[in-house]
Amino acid sequence: MGILHDPVASALREHLGVCDDLLLLAQKEAEALQQPGPFPAARIQSERKELLTRLELSSRSIAAQRNRRAQMDPRDRGTPLELADLVQTTLDKIMRLLVMDRENEASLLRRGLLPPRSLPRAGQSQPNFVALTYQRHAQG
Fold first, then answer.
1. What distance lies between CA 72 and its chain's CA centroid?
2. N or C: which end of the chain has fewer CB within 10 A?
């Protein structure tokens, strides 16, 4: 079974598609924040909520497929290198999304559309916070 038929790879591709959609939404949000007119908060929040539901489902799918993959015969799996490339592409997309989301958050604060109490704790501003979070979840 090559990477095209590997269920983990399929789940990762689906997750990458959701990340692409989230990045597009973040870009639309950034563009809307650059406009002088009113910010379409309700529309963006609605789209975000739908995408976050899809993100949760795709994350669960990856976890389920990963568990099934661990039980498969190694000869029936895609090569680790092929999966590693797909994982790296997904992580790169997530990092771009996080950076853009942080920039949008700062723009929302500047426009007075986000209360300061909704900011993340200081620990979440550390550059390695996301990597450490992924490591904790991978171990659990």
1. 27
2. C
- With 0.70 as the threshold, say if the pTM is over it: yes
Q: How many residues does the chain have?
A: 140
Q: Which residues 6+ apart lie within 8 Å of 116 measured at CB?
A: 109
Range of the domain at 101: 7-139
What whole-number distance in Å separates Cα of residue 61 and Cα of residue 74? 20
How many CB atoms are located within 10 Å of the residue 118 CB? 9
What is the domain count for the chain? 1
Domain membership of residue 1 (yes or no) is: no
Q: What is the pLDDT of residues 75-131, one digit of tens each?
A: 666 567 878 899 999 999 999 999 999 999 889 888 887 776 665 565 555 667 666
